[in-house]
Structures are given as C-alpha cells and as structure tokens.
Design goal:
By secondary structure, this protein is an alpha+beta fold. 11% of the residues lie in helices and 27% in strands. The strands form two sheets. It has a four-stranded antiparallel sheet, with helices on one face.
Amino acid sequence: NSLATYANKLSTEDCRIDWNCSAIQICREVRAFNPFPGAFCFINDKRTKILEAEVRSARPGIAPKQAGAVYFHDKLTLEIQTGSGILALLT
C-alpha cells in the first residue's frame, strides 16, 4: 500500500483523440480506453468511438498533410495523419 499512487478519474476530454500526438501514442490510448470509456473523435461532426487502430508507415509518393487529415485506404479503412505517422482506424 505504501507504493500505491492516486489516479484521477478520467474525464470525457481525456478520451478525445488529439491528432497532434504521435500515431504510436494514439494507438496506445485507443487500446487503453477500450471498451470503456472509449477513445473518440469527431468525423463529419459526429462523435465516433474508435475501438481498434494500428500504426501505418507513410505512404510513398504522398507528402504528409497536417495532423487530422484523412486518407481513404480502401472502403473499410480510414487512415488519419497524426503529428508523427499515420493511424489506420480499423473498428
């Protein structure tokens, strides 16, 4: 008990994805907050809960865009530019 530390209760804002962070950090947050309270972002002004994501390498021949820019990989996968790297939203 003497080594225990106090952790504050998570707020809704703690679970909101900050696309300026690195893809690795965001991927870890998605795993940590799954299933509850759930990492989320807004896509087309709709709150979207992200359950599964993975880090992807930069796409060859495409210059990096600003953090939060969306790439469509295929019909099932969105890729989003982060502060460092690309994060694929799988679920």
